[in-house]
Amino acid sequence: MDFLSIRVITADVARLVDFYERATGVRAAWSNEDFAELRTPSATLAIASARTVPLFAPGAAHPADNRSVILEFLVDDVDRLHKDLADFVADFVNEPTTMPWGNRSLLFRDPDGNLVNFFTPVTPAAKEKFAH
Questions:
Q1: Whose CA is closest to 47, among 7, 85, 4, 5?
Q2: Bridge-partner residues for 92, per DSSP?
Q3: CA angle 53, 58, 62 (to 5 degrees)
Q4: How far from 100 is each of 15, 38, 105, 118, 132, CA to CA, in Å?
Q5: 1-57 and 69-132: same fold?
Q6: Using a CB cutoff of 8 Å and minimum separation of 24, what contacts does 80-84 make?
Q7: For residues 53 and 59, is the Cβ–Cβ distance under 8 A?
Q8: What is the pLDDT of residue 132?
Q9: How far apart are CA 34 and CA 56, in angstroms?
Q10: 16: closest CA among 83, 51, 64?
Q11: pLDDT tens, residue order, the chain (132 aa)
Q12: 104, containing H or E segment
């Protein structure tokens, strides 16, 4: 089994896609106005309209209602990105902080309130864990 993607349900696909394109520098591939994907070498962030939910199970997902999942992105320099994001991220949850497990993390919210963590391994053990 391979973990390939996570899908975020939103009431405004264009707004959320624009946010993630700006934050990650990855261009989205659009299937239609209700679905787009930001593909990276290791995983895909799918962004879908609330109109797609009934295709799976009506009422199974609700936009802007997440309080348990954090979308995480491995980045080269979290401190530099923090400065770049300041122009359009409205809700930083913390400043870049070195975590006990060796990653320097920046936690913020996307326009729908979903938590996003950009992190850079900084200790030797963390760097080894994420070595390509």
A1: 7
A2: 108
A3: 55
A4: 34, 30, 11, 16, 22
A5: yes
A6: 81/106, 81/118, 82/106, 82/118
A7: yes
A8: 67
A9: 14
A10: 64
A11: 999 999 999 999 999 999 999 999 999 999 999 999 999 999 999 999 999 999 999 999 999 999 999 999 999 999 999 999 999 999 999 999 999 999 999 999 999 999 999 999 999 999 999 886
A12: strand 103-109
> pLDDT value at position 131?
86
CATH class of 1-57: alpha beta
Contacts of 44 (CB under 8 A, 6+ apart): 4, 5, 6, 37, 38
Structure-token pair, residue 47:
């962004």
Exposure letters 97-115 (e unless 16+ CB within 10 A, then b): eeeeebbbbbbbebbbebb
Topology of domain 69-132, per CATH? 2,3-Dihydroxybiphenyl 1,2-Dioxygenase; domain 1 (3.10.180)
